[in-house]
Structure formats: structure tokens, C-alpha cells
Write a structure and sequence with these properties.
With about 150 residues, this protein is α+β, with helices and mostly antiparallel strands. It has one domain: NADH Oxidase. The protein is about 40% helix and about 15% strand. It has five helices and three strands. The N and C termini lie far apart (about 55 Å). It binds flavin mononucleotide (FMN).
């Protein structure tokens, strides 16, 4: 099945975005014992996206097409708060942009009208705390890396 998307994904990742993506990918594979040479293992793990990583529920986040990027920005705020609210209730989440690359499949399955853009999914449920993948944590950028402080006179 060929996928289509409503929200174009980045053509490529450069600089720190590429580096962070690479590091979090390798840390994820390491947690699962998937070696760098094991392209089949990496592929198998990537396909987990389309099993919702075994989660029992998924929320589909959509935005009114006519709102364009403003709607996507609002969805980002919504997703962040959903993740935090779920965490506070002991519910684990995985934000998933990958399913938006098959918006045709998602739209058909959930009967989503054409005027709503599929932005991402949020798979959720109680975490399997015994599974090694759930011991994996991504690194965090420092405040200095993330924020540029300037005074009014600069
Ligand atoms: C909007 C958004 C979309 C994401 N899409 C995916 C995805 O499609 N597949 C995936 O494996 N991780 C995706 N991630 C990353 C995971 O949801 C999760 O953030 C990551 O495993 C690391 O956890 P952390 O949020 O604690 O850094 C996405 C994250 C965000 C915020």
C-alpha cells in the first residue's frame, strides 16, 4: 500500500536535527540489541510504528485543512499537553508522526473527512515496564543549546 500525506514531512534532516535523530535511533536500537549492521532488525523495529508499538489505543490528531500551519501549531500544543496529562495519570504515550505518512489509510479506516488533515497519532496505554525498550530514554539538549537569550539592546 502506498502512503500519502496531508502534512509534508521534512525532505531531510540537517545539523543538530539529523544528529539528534541519529543518536536517539541508535540508543533505541541498542536498548533492543539491534546492531548497526542489522538492517532487517532496524526495518522490523520501524514497522512497529504500524502496530502502534503494541499499544491498545490510538488518538488520531487532525486539523482543519483551511487553517494550514496555524492549525498544525495548535495540534503541537495539544499533543504536548495530552502526553503530560496522560503521564500524570500513569498512562504511557508515543506520539507518532509516522502514521501521517499513510493519511489515506488512516482517513479511510476512521472515516475522516477530506477537509481535515491527519497530523499525527498518539498511541497510548499502560507501559510494559518489563520490556527493555521502555528502559530507553532520549537525551535532552541543554538550555543553552535550546534557547538564545538576548537583551533589548542586542
Ligand atoms: C510530534 C511527534 C511525532 C513523533 N513521531 C514518531 C514516530 O512516528 N515514530 C517514533 O518512533 N517516534 C516518534 N516520535 C518520538 C516518540 O514519540 C518519543 O518522543 C520518543 O520515543 C522519545 O521519547 P521522549 O519524548 O521522552 O524523548 C514523535 C515525537 C513527537 C513529539
Amino acid at each position: 500500500m502506498r502512503g500519502t500525506y496531508d502534512v509534508p514531512p521534512p525532505g531531510r534532516y540537517e545539523g543538530p536535527y539529523k544528529e539528534r535523530r541519529r543518536r536517539s535511533g541508535y540508543a533505541l536500537y541498542d536498548s533492543l540489541g539491534i546492531t548497526r549492521e542489522d538492517s532487517e532488525g532496524r526495518m522490523r523495529q520501524a514497522f512497529e510504528n504500524y502496530r502502534l508499538f503494541g499499544a491498545p489505543h490510538v488518538a488520531i490528531v487532525t486539523s482543519e485543512a483551511q487553517l494550514g500551519p496555524y492549525g498544525y501549531v495548535d495540534c503541537g500544543a495539544y499533543v504536548a499537553n495530552f502526553l503530560l496529562a496522560a503521564e500524570s495519570l500513569g498512562v504511557a504515550t508515543i506520539a507518532q508522526a509516522s502514521i501521517a505518512n499513510f493519511s489515506n489509510v488512516v482517513r479511510a479506516h476512521f472515516d475522516i473527512p477530506a477537509e481535515r488533515h491527519v497530523v499525527c497519532g498518539i498511541s497510548f496505554g499502560y507501559a510494559d515496564t518489563e520490556h527493555p525498550v521502555n528502559a530507553f530514554r532520549t537525551e535532552r539538549a541543554t538550555i543553552a543549546e535550546a534557547i538564545e537569550f538576548r537583551g533589548f539592546g542586542d
